[in-house]
Every structure is written in structure tokens, then in C-alpha cells.
Design goal:
Organism: Caldimonas caldifontis
Radius of gyration: 17 Å
Strand order of the largest sheet: 1-7-6-2-5-3-4
Largest sheet: 7 strands, mixed
Distance between the termini: 36 Å
Shape: globular
CATH topology: Cobalt-precorrin-4 Transmethylase, domain 1
Number of helices: 8
Pfam families: Acyltransferase
CATH class: Alpha Beta
GO molecular function: 1-acylglycerol-3-phosphate O-acyltransferase activity
Keywords: Acyltransferase, Lipid biosynthesis, Lipid metabolism, Membrane, Transferase, Transmembrane, Transmembrane helix
Strand content: 15-25%
Order of helices and strands: HHEEHEHEHEHEHEH
Protein name: 1-acyl-sn-glycerol-3-phosphate acyltransferase
Structural class: alpha/beta
Length: 244
């Protein structure tokens, strides 16, 4: 009973915070430069984690300048956790544009959308990511292509890494781990199967002592590399960090 009441209180705060975010997007974002937007995204993301009762632990530092963040994928919370660490532009599935209200916040952060059902769309997104990297942006991708439970990594798809290779932009792996009060992997966060966004929000809000650890691994050079070899190397580094 107490956990449910606490969850309701947390979700009430989340709703207010999301509405505040929409106000910022509608009335402030257009007047801010890139640095100002990043500061707002950083603040908003950290506050959202706090409202959900999630503690953020960051290990390592983001590499200065343009880079491609490559992270394991467990939940919609991954985007929040990375933005609370070092704001980035994300490559996301096109279905996110159909999420009520939230799609406005996601789109305001210059998200790049991928139509996964269309094979040729991947090439278009690779070109868009390359252009963003050449412009000095930080872009974040989830090469597993879908969410997992957090217990093991899924195979990495290498195509998106071609953008970093083509522009000779460093790739910085990020290992994300969600744990509970007992320091074991939390099942409440995994956004898998037929779980809806509403169900996921409720489970996260009811969870006790959630912590997300974002480990920023040393950036990897990409010059003259094969994308499959790069994907294998990055996957190994993330796997090693998660096991530590």
C-alpha cells in the first residue's frame, strides 16, 4: 500500500515535470543557443530521475567535441540517463513520434528517427548521423536495436557505426546498469516484450532504491576500421564494464 502511494506521488511529480518541460520547449528553446539547450536538457533529465526516485552514478567523463555514444539498451530510461550524464542527439525508432506528449520533448532534442521496417531508411539515418558528427554534435545510438533485460548484451548491429568511421569520429562506449537496493539488476526497469510505457512507468515508480550507473568508457578511434570489428570491440568493452 505504501509503495503504491509513493508511486502515485512520484508520478504526480513526473507529470508536473513533463508539463514544465513542454513549457520550456514551447517558449524557451527557440531563444537558446546549443549550449543553453544542453544545459536545459541536462537539468531536466537529472530532475526527472530524482522525481522517479532514481539515483544517478556516473563513472568516467565524456570526451570533448564530436563523438558517437554507443550504449547498451534496457529501457526508455536510457535516454534520460545519458542526457543526465552528457546530453546528446539520439537515433530512435520512429514509433516514439506516436507517444502522447512525450514525443514533443524527444523531438525538441533534435532526435533522428529510424523507420525500422524500411531497410533503406538505415542508410538515410547513417548519412544524417555523419552530418551531425561533422557539425560537431554528440550523437547516441543503441546498436542492439531493441531493449534487453540488462542481464546480457544482445548482438550489436554495425551499420550505424559507419557514420563514425566515415567521419573519423571517436566512438565512446557507455555501459548502463540499473540496480536495486540489494545491488542486483533491477527487473522493474526492463522495457521488454509487450510492456507498455504506462506499465513501465508504474513499475519504475513503485521500485525501491533504484540506481542507474552510467560508465563512460575511454573513447575509441575509428580511422580505417571495419564497422563489424568496431562493433565487436565496443560490445566487448561494454560487456567488460558491466561485469566489473
Amino acid at each position: 500500500m505504501l509503495r503504491s502511494l509513493r508511486a502515485c506521488w512520484r508520478l504526480t511529480r513526473v507529470i508536473v515535470h513533463v508539463l514544465h518541460g513542454l513549457v520550456i520547449v514551447w517558449w524557451r528553446f527557440g531563444t537558446l543557443d546549443a549550449a543553453g539547450r544542453r544545459e536545459r536538457v541536462l537539468w531536466w533529465s537529472r530532475a526527472l530521475l530524482r522525481h522517479l526516485g532514481i539515483t544517478l552514478v556516473v563513472r568516467g567523463s565524456p570526451r570533448p567535441g564530436a563523438k558517437l555514444f554507443v550504449a547498451n539498451h534496457i529501457s526508455w530510461l536510457d535516454i534520460v540517463a545519458i542526457n543526465a550524464t552528457a546530453p546528446a542527439r539520439f537515433v530512435s525508432k520512429a514509433e516514439v513520434r506516436r507517444w502522447p506528449v512525450l514525443h514533443r520533448l524527444v523531438s525538441a532534442a533534435d532526435t533522428l528517427y529510424l523507420e525500422r521496417e524500411k531497410r533503406r531508411d538505415a542508410l538515410r539515418v547513417v548519412h544524417q548521423v555523419a552530418e551531425a558528427l561533422q557539425a560537431g554534435d554528440t550523437v547516441a545510438v543503441f546498436p542492439e536495436g531493441t531493449t534487453g533485460t540488462g542481464h546480457e548484451l544482445l548482438p550489436f548491429h554495425a551499420n550505424i557505426l559507419q557514420a563514425a568511421i566515415a567521419t573519423e569520429t571517436p566512438v565512446q562506449p557507455i555501459a548502463l546498469r540499473y540496480s536495486d537496493r540489494r545491488a542486483t539488476i533491477s527487473a522493474a526497469v526492463a522495457y521488454v516484450g509487450d510492456t507498455t510505457l504506462v506499465q513501465s512507468l508504474w513499475w519504475v515508480a513503485r521500485a525501491d532504491g533504484l540506481q542507474v550507473t552510467a560508465t563512460l568508457i575511454e573513447a575509441q578511434g575509428t580511422r580505417h576500421l571495419d564497422r563489424r570489428a568496431l562493433a565487436q570491440r565496443v560490445r566487448g568493452l561494454i560487456e567488460e564494464a558491466l561485469a566489473a
